[in-house]
Design goal:
The protein has helices at about 1-10, 15-25, 110-115, 125-130, and strands spanning about 30-35, 55-60, 65-70, 85-90, 95, 100-110, 135-140. It has one domain (about 1-140). It has 4 helices and 7 strands, in the order H-H-E-E-E-E-E-E-H-H-E. It starts with a helix and ends with a strand. The protein is α+β, with helices and mostly antiparallel strands and about 140 residues long. Helix 2 packs across helix 3 (about 110-115). A hairpin with a 3-residue loop joins strand 2 (about 55-60) and strand 3 (about 65-70). Strands 1-2-3-7-6-5-4 form a 7-stranded antiparallel sheet.
Length: about 140
């Protein structure tokens, strides 16, 4: 399942957010926490991420750790860890692979986030919160 997902992403040179959500849920089901006001950051997220992003979703399972943010920067490369080697695919997607794990980082417009998960009311009550933001997803997958 992981190989098929990554193969499709590399072949098309893009990541479909809805397909990612489905992959994540079926690869190894887990628990999901969502809070529009923000979640307390886990210790493994580096402090520079907390200067402006709002941490909104945490997914945890035995094989997948995934964190989602509302951010001001529009490129995934702004959030890459300096000590990892990445394959960068376009301006919105990067993969780092080792023998034991894979890190997937992507950033998408809010419109694509709402098609994938529907947690926010983009036209009314959440419009102000989402204005000028992008959706950042950082996912660690054990192989």
């Amino acid at each position: 399942m992981l190989n098929k997902f990554i193969s499709t992403v590399k072949q098309t040179k893009k990541i479909d957010a809805q397909a990612f959500w489905q992959f994540r849920e079926f690869y190894y089901p887990g628990s999901l926490v969502v809070d529009k006001k923000g979640i307390k950051p886990p210790p493994f997220i580096s402090p520079p991420l907390w200067t402006s992003p709002l941490y909104i979703t945490a997914f945890r399972s035995k094989l997948v750790t995934s964190d989602e943010f509302l951010v001001g920067y529009a490129t995934a490369s702004a959030y890459l860890e300096p000590n990892k080697r990445y394959t960068i695919i376009g301006s919105d997607f990067a993969i780092s692979e080792s023998q034991k794990s894979m890190q997937i980082i992507f950033i998408k417009p809010i419109a694509e986030m709402t098609r994938a998960n529907g947690f926010f009311d983009v036209k009314d009550k959440d419009a102000k919160l989402l204005k000028g933001k992008s959706w950042l997803v950082i996912t660690e997958i054990s192989k």
